[in-house]
Write a structure and sequence with these properties.
The chain is mainly beta. It contains 2 helices and 19 strands. It has a single domain, classed as Immunoglobulin-like. Bound molecules: copper (II) ion. Copper (II) ion binds next to loops.
Length: about 230
Amino acid sequence: MQTMSFIRSCGLAAAAMVALAGPAMAGGTITGKIKFDGTAPKRATLDMAADPVCAAAHPSPALADDVVVNDGALQYAFVYLKSVPGTHAAPGEPSVINQQGCQYIPHIAGVQIGQPMKFTNSDQTLHNVHGMPKVNTPFNFAMPKFVKQKETKFTAEELMVAVKCDVHPWMAGYIGVLPHPFFAVSGADGSFKIENIPAGEYDVVVWQEKLGAKEAKVKVDEGGSATADFNYAG
Ligand SMILES: [Cu+2]
């Protein structure tokens, strides 16, 4: 009997939560494109000869991901909203960086405070994931070929956390840690999309490891769409 009423009250609590979540205001969307004007810097060729497993993964030499420009569009720029009111529960679903062909894929990732940050290893070789935050606690995971995943969590906002592999000096990536889910990484076409944003006026920041940061003010209406385009120059 007690069990029944416990189940019933849980059911009611769940129903109440659904009711609370139900009429939530419709979030808005910010989309944009990161452009690069002028001559793009030439991407360095990565010499992976030191590890035959890495070299074998690239029939044609791999290129550095530090500035990737495709037809005037800048890839791997981290875009985020500077401050968003309210608290935002961290998703249980991890943000993932894979070590594949001795490169970090993706090169740039975002994660929420408290959300699992997972590193996977698709390579049949030894990596180590050496995180070098200045605010969060540094970490260093050895990932021999039989260790296929490791997870960590961040406890504080930090833009950005550098990650490297001490075995393969060309491996470098960055992670943006935010207290909310309103971030994105620009795609191969330079575009990004941030969704479900509470109505308000925001500073949208774009960060690129070699080219620096840029900011724009953007107003988001309830359920509306706003645009924020950014231009870097060569
Ligand atoms: Cu490595």
